[in-house]
Amino acid sequence: MVRVAVNVEQLLHEAPGGIGRYTAELLRLLPAQGVDVTPFTDQVKNGTTFLFPVTNNAADVVALMNPRMDAVYIGSAPVSSLTKLNKQLNDLFEVAE
Description:
Layout: H1 19-29, H2 38-46, H3 58-74, H4 82-96
């Protein structure tokens, strides 16, 4: 079994090559291999993507969030593991105040 996480944000911009072309090709080919890419494409198609807000402790937020979100995306951690992450982030903001 192969698990794939795709960030399709690059598709919001014209890209003559590189990661944009690679991502577009993956999105075209993966469904034929039985991979459902709609969780990664629906927000782009529906125009509901967003930029993350500016925040205090941004580097700490990213350092906490990225590995946890990646683990959920690839299936090595359950979504319920994000409850602990939420508490850590809330505690981080209490310290920042």
